[in-house]
Amino acid sequence: RLQTDYIDLYQAHEDDLSLPVEAPLETFGALIAAGKVRVIGASNFGAARLEAVLCMGGHNGLPRYESLQPHYNLMERAEFESEHAPVCRRHAIGVIPYFALASGFLTGKYRSEADFAKSVRGEDAQQYLNPRGRAVLTALDEVAARHGGTPAQVALAWLLAKQPVTAPIIGASKMPQLDDAVAAVNVKLSEGDIKQLEAPYKARPNIAFR
């Protein structure tokens, strides 16, 4: 179905804690040697194990993880920023965050309890309808208005402005959603924009709104 005989980037979906951290590298090395995979990446690794495996990659014939796929967006920041980002910067690997729009919450389409029933993904976004989430949406609306864009574009532009992010992963189900997301590359946030978008995360507890 992919009409290709090799994979450009193979992401290890999750770290198997029952195995030595370097064990999967041997298997990936065989796939790379066979021409089936070009490069590999890691996903959902703890920072300590990620650091350890990055120190091993590139030695003794073992391949190196070239990217990390973390859960990172305007609503989920603490773990990546405090633990993983320093590791990624030290080892110069790419970062491709998933849930970049927090299950659609950062598009602005979920603003009340009634909105969650409008989409099959609504239940996943419900956790963000709290004081912090409402404050983030307000900031997104205001920044988007200044740039003539949409909340989704601003949320993606924020990720693109954060080092060491390479590119966010988006989950578009319709062409207009894809077009909207791609236009995020044209939104250039100022330092003031970024501070405004980040302020609610530090100022408000992540407590469910009732």
Describe the structure.
A four-stranded parallel beta sheet has the order 1-2-3-4, with helices on one face. It is elongated, with a radius of gyration of 19 Å. Helix content is 42%, strand content 10%. The longest helix has 17 residues, at 131-147. The model is unreliable at 203-210 (pLDDT under 50). The chain has helices spanning 23-33, 47-56, 78-91, 122-125, 131-147, 151-161, 175-182, 191-203; strands at residues 7-12, 37-43, 65-69, 94-95. The chain contains eight helices and four strands, in the order E-H-E-H-E-H-E-H-H-H-H-H. With 210 residues, the chain is α/β, with parallel strands linked by helices. Helix 5 (131-147) packs across helix 6. Strand 2 (37-43), helix 2 and strand 3 form a beta-alpha-beta unit.
